[in-house]
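Notebook B, p. 112. Complex prediction, attempt 2.
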Amino acid sequence: MEKKWEEMTADEKRNDLIGKWLSPPGVKYASPDAEKEYKARVQRILDAINLKKPDRVPVFPMMGFFPAYYAGFTPRDVMYDYDKLMSSHVKYVLDFQPDAHGSVTISPPGKSFDILDYKLYAWPGHGVAPEYSYQCIEGEYMKADEYDALTDDPTYFFLTTFLPRTMAALDAFKMISPLTSMTEMYGGFTGAALVPYGLPPVQAALKALMDAGTEAFKWIQTVGAYGGAMAVAGFPGFFGGGTKAPFDTIGDTLRGTRGIITDMYRQPAKLIRAMEQITPIMVKMGVANARQNGCPVVFIPLHKGADGFMSEEQFKKFYWPTLKDLITGLIAEGCIPFPWAEGGYNTRLKLIKDVPKGKVIWGFDTTDMAKAKEILGDVACIGGNMSIATLSVGTVQNVKDSVKKLIADAGKGGGYIMMSGAVIENVPPANVKAMIDATKEYGVYK
Amino acid sequence: MAKDLAKALADLKEDEALAIVREKLNAGADPIGILNDAGRGMETVGARFSKSEYFIPDLVYSGEILKQINELVKPKLAKGGAVKTGGKVIIGTVAGDIHDIGKDIVVFMLDVSGFEVFDLGVDVPIQKFVDKIKETGSTVVGLSGFLTLAYDAMKQTVEAIQKAGLRDKTRIMIGGGQITDDIVKYTGADAYGKDAVAGVTLARKWLSAK
């Protein structure tokens, strides 16, 4: 009989997730060829991750809103019309035939965020033009003196402080009592803790949350079928889940860049303690999604640890320890962490080599790939670096030349996945096609 | 206690730097002299950044200290404050892009390097750059952008400057996470700075060559 997840070793968990990725339960393939191709595509990616030589270099262009633009829609269109979202992504995959697709959830349900009066992002038609992608609005959504509140009870802090500040419709959640008070029936326990839910503003906030949820449910009822539909056609998904490095979790949307930088000087111990506190939460976020989606790869976009963003000393002190714990924690749960180093990571390569062999995909944006291959090649699969600038403004020949060079620099002997250096938005479709086709042409291993 | 404000600021000793400023002000020191010391400290910060001894956190933190020094000194300052002698620079994040962290660091470094900076903010309509060039007579423009959508907005902004007949006397630099030499060519700009200090170097070169 099947073992319970909690009783499995890391390897058993990994094999379980890989098994589900290779043979997704319940999928009835469109044809025997579709099944063969599906499995070949996953195997190609797995071989690269396992540092074996696949039949050829796998190619996975990371999509932003490219499928929408390609289908003649704006980002606004697909964020509000889930059929358009679904049909555009299906069209992209079938027309371009990549080895894997990303997730349609890159385009969240716009109306939910209207309902919540969301302050953390501007999005198409709501702070940015309909033809552009959503963009984060940095701020100190957590104040400098709130580290203790975050560290003592992260969920309560989110519920009563972070959410009211980032979702105006949930402002009244400030009044909610700690849920951990509800341990007894009488006195100041549950009876008193229920009182805030009787207040009209709290009830209005709960209603808004329910309405936002209704819309999100509508969204997932449409787009939730995407992964299955693509598997039927022979195309696996690349992402099991996503999570973030603790430094970025706090620096991106809680304290903001300026905030976390001042904390590095004024209250380094509190910052480090908070990062340590949220690390297991970050692990769980990735694992939960990966298990639900039946795919072990957990995406970790890395932001503030890049070359130039901090010194090596600062990276060693503030950024790497909890990122490494996150990576280790994900591996222990059978996942394949996929840290994605935005910007350059040339000065970090030796440090980040400190991960177990064949368990991690290191993705790169502008890092020197020959150097990355030389330093990391015997420990981790590497991916990325197809220049987004070249894809955006180069010719088809420029793209082909870049693909050829990348395969020569980073593809030697396997362990490389062709990916764009950054998410692909409104770029010429011919260049995306060239990236995929050239990889299939030049990437074959003999 | 050391009285060297420039050194305290350059070494990012916040408490010490602010204590020195307070002490000097209490002793009736010339506020302009204090700002000059702070300026020397910031020069050292910039130099250390160019040599990769300092990084963005150090730069931003030095800015935080400087801001507080300015606030302490301001009430004692006669109207006008320090004179900007480096020349005029217009800067902004191009239309469609709302990112400001990178731009703000460049603005800050230009400002402490003695330039008169006209910061147009984020998501700046193309025409606003043209109007500002006409209004200020500035000959250096910086276009910032974090997202790839900025490529086209930068290109269109450069074209609009051209169409207004201002391109010949205007030098244009671009900057942002996904900027390369190819993008300089694509947008029709003159150069790109890979970081804030590179931006200051370009501005200095262009404005002193006039």
